[in-house]
Amino acid sequence: MLRLKAFLAAVVVATPVAALAGPGRGADGTVNILYWQAPSMMNPYLAGGDKEAEAASLVLEPLARADENAKLSPCLAVDIPTVENGGVSNELKSITWKLKPDLKWSDGTPVTAKDVVFTASYCMDAKAGCSSLDNFRSVDKVEAVDNLTIKVTFNETMPVPYGPFVSKWSPIIQAKQFADCLGEKAPTCTEANFNPIGTGPFVVTSFKPNDSIQLKANPHYRDPNKPAFADVNYKGGGDALGAARAVLQTGEYDFGWNTIVAPDVLKKMAEAGKGTLLAQFGSLVEILVMNLTDPSPSLPLDERSTAKYPNPILSDSRVRKALSIAIDRATLAKIGYDFMGQPTCDFIPAPAHFAAGNTDCLKQDIKGAQKLLDEAGWRRGPDGIRERDSKKLKLTYQTSTNAVRQQLQAIIKQWWREIGVDVELRNINASVFFSSDPGNPDTYQKFYADVEMFSFSSGIEPSASVASNTCDKAPRATNQWRSANYARYCDKDYDALVTQLDQTDDIEKRGEIVKKLNNMLTVDSNTYVPLVRRASPMAISNKLGGFIIGWDSTFSNIQDWYRKK
Predict the structure, then answer these.
(1) CA angle at residue 397 from 391 to 398, to 5 degrees?
(2) For 109-166, how does the pLDDT look when each residue is reduced to its tens digit (9 = 90+)?
(3) Where on the phi/psi map is residue 384: left (φ > 0), alpha (ψ -120 to 50), or beta?
(4) 403-418 vs 329-336: helix axis angle to the nearest 10?
(5) Three-state DSSP class for 234?
(6) If DSSP codes are grouped into helix, strand and coil, which group holds residue 360?
(7) For the sheet containing 275-278, what is the strand order?
(8) Closest by Cα among 33, 158, 27, 172 to 93
(9) Of 536, 370, 354, 542, which Cα lies nearest the Cα of 461?
């Protein structure tokens, strides 16, 4: 069996490749980006979803991130620490990073190890409600060895020590700017959260929450010839159809994000010849989440969808399984995504050594679903809707506003109606649904519904994703509704297995543990109901060069984008 130490020494590191010289900083004018889920802030540590982390990645950078080949690549760090190069201790309890020399913040001041240490303190403060806290699990301390060297020490063996300061979710923030933003003050620092000082290729000049961002080239960016674009016009709002049209048909924009539109419509748009559709399969899955707690509006706001009140319908695993097996995933994949979708039963579909490869859910079983509901005591009433103890079997099912998602909602509603379940459909503007505002009642984290649907990606190393579903990670008022255990799932055996995963350094055994965790959430409990493994479709102007689909932020290499002549 291959040990993780050998893996850390030989496999995980991407070989740095020298980028081609560009046209010169700012030589290509303005790049127009239509990212229709508009961000509510530029701070991924307080983010409600990808839309904030993605936007912030134009400005804030981590020490390392995954490249287009799903391998770790240094960003602000000189290299990737491993056991072989001495950066990871032999006992796997510490990792030492070295910053590239002469790095500067966009205000011209030097980046030092103290900024990295501060970043850890910022997120690890229990009162901050940091949404990236799982990246720092098991961290005992973070120290500045010298101006450019940072040592992270864990309180237990950490076979995969690349949590802190790795990926768009864990970038370095400037200690000086955020000094007065620790703990409960974190959400109140509007200037810092909207206009962070960063090391990335661009600087915010104007930020309008849930609307638009204007950025200019960072004058202190470490490569004097980059970025090629002088300005970024980053527009939010609208929908996937509008984003696709603005790139593929009208040519008004250079980049359109997440153009999940009916495949035949996309193909028709592409015939205009102004742009290209790019799609790549990773670990992105369209899922249904079953709320195990009661979202009833009759409960106090801070107690709705909390463990204090179990869901009166979905707490029964037989009901959840019935809802799952009533679905024909192949039909959803074909109608909603065509060549951009594959039916799946797994919460973690990739990389291959972590994928359980379940297939039983792929066969729709209406009769089996009806039998399960009969066994659970739900009997059909005169109108065909099931009842138990004079209570109708009625569920609220929410998702973000998007034509494909509304189509899938309607199809699933029809199947559930066939087995005797009444369904109320809700669709919420994406900028509201994925908002990071703890005062917003309509976010997917507050989950004031029975079922919700969105896409989820576990990345190249799913340990943080599975750890986010432990009992203590349920969103609630005390963590400002920012934790990621959306279903409010709680199983002490699951928690113990997550702990075991953190202490396991054999790659094959880690894979088996992840598969078990995947199954506990999906086929065993039907708490998470995976539907379709999705490619991430992006519309790219034929005049835009340098774009690469990566495993981290969509904008991981925006410094290399340029205008084709």
Answers:
(1) 145
(2) 999 999 999 999 999 998 998 989 989 989 999 999 999 999 999 998 888 899 999 9
(3) left
(4) 150
(5) strand
(6) helix
(7) 202-208, 212-217, 231-235, 30-34, 255-256, 538-541, 275-278
(8) 158
(9) 354
